[in-house]
Design a protein that fits this description.
mainly alpha; elongated; single chain
Amino acid sequence: MQILQKDTQVDDKTIAADKEVLQHAYPATPVADEHAYDVVVAFDIKAGLITSAPPYQQLVDNQTAVQALQGFRPSV
């Protein structure tokens, strides 16, 4: 936020409001789970956006993602 304020000369009130919004924009566990993936794939297929999708396990390495995010707290 300091960079935003410095580069754009945004006032403190606007920075505080932006910070509040951005803090709620980050999920508590920012890892895509298999159910969410399946829902998106089903929607995309039904909408005609795709004809098929690779299996979830082929795309998402949850173990690495979880380990990388342990202790992660976005600071905005």
